């Protein structure tokens, strides 16, 4: 019985949780951005009538998943900040700031970009098919939102890579 209780009394490796969460989040973002979206575009599904609703549903679910990942990463860094004083001060403060930026990016995706982009893509005139006008030209606001989306994606990948590097280095140093 004593060996069973000792198994569960080990402290959680918060840096490993951060690495696993960032790995899952960034890899799923790569799959969505560079596999799913290009294949939908190449197959012509983006020009179909029901794509806006389906895209909003898919991105809505993925954005909530991103919020969970960002919240978990921020929580892990807050725990590391509070309990582990062996981290260097620059990495400690920087990781708190960068995890907050990742949470902000996820909030922007969930509550600003996805609803606005879906709203611009919806065609609410019942007497016009609307698909031909949507597929021929994109409004300037949609182009600006696309640039902001890809800019935030780039920032997310850079910040994620920095946090992965810091966590991996700190975890390796604490094991040796």
Short structural description:
This protein has 176 residues and is an all-alpha fold.
Secondary structure layout plus pairing:
Blueprint: H1 2-8, H2 14-43, H3 51-83, H4 89-121, H5 131-136, H6 140-175
Helix pairs in contact: 2-3, 2-6, 3-4, 4-6
Outline type: elongated
Q: Kindly state the percentage of residues in helix.
A: over 70%
| SSE sequence, one letter per element | HHHHHH
Cα gyration radius (Å): 21 Å
Poorly predicted regions are: none
Main sheet attributes: strand count, strand direction, barrel closure: none
Per DSSP, the total helix count is 6
Q: Round the mean pLDDT to the nearest integer and report it.
A: 84
N-to-C span: 31 Å
> What is the beta-strand fraction?
under 5%
Derived from helix and strand composition plus strand pairing, the structural class reads: mainly alpha
* Count of discrete structural domains: 1
Number of strands: 0
Protein name: DUF4149 domain-containing protein
Keywords: Membrane, Transmembrane, Transmembrane helix
Transmembrane segments: 12-36, 56-83, 95-114, 147-168
Essential attributes:
membrane; mainly alpha; transmembrane helix; DUF4149 domain-containing protein; transmembrane; 176 residues; elongated
């Amino acid at each position: 019985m004593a060996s069973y209780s000792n198994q569960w009394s080990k402290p959680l490796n918060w840096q490993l949780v951060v690495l696993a969460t960032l790995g899952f989040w960034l890899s799923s973002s790569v799959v969505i951005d560079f596999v799913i979206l290009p294949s939908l575009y190449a197959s012509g599904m983006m020009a179909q009538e029901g794509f806006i609703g389906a895209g909003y549903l898919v991105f809505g679910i993925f954005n909530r998943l991103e919020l969970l990942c960002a919240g978990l990463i921020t929580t892990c860094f807050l725990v590391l900040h509070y309990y582990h004083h062996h981290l260097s001060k620059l990495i400690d403060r920087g990781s708190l700031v960068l995890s907050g930026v990742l949470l902000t990016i996820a909030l922007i995706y969930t509550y600003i970009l996805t609803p606005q982009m879906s709203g611009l893509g919806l065609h609410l005139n019942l007497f016009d098919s609307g698909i031909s006008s949507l597929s021929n030209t994109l409004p300037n606001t949609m182009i600006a939102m696309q640039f902001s989306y890809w800019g935030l994606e780039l920032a997310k990948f850079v910040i994620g890579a920095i946090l992965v590097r810091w966590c991996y280095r700190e975890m390796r140093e604490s094991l040796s």
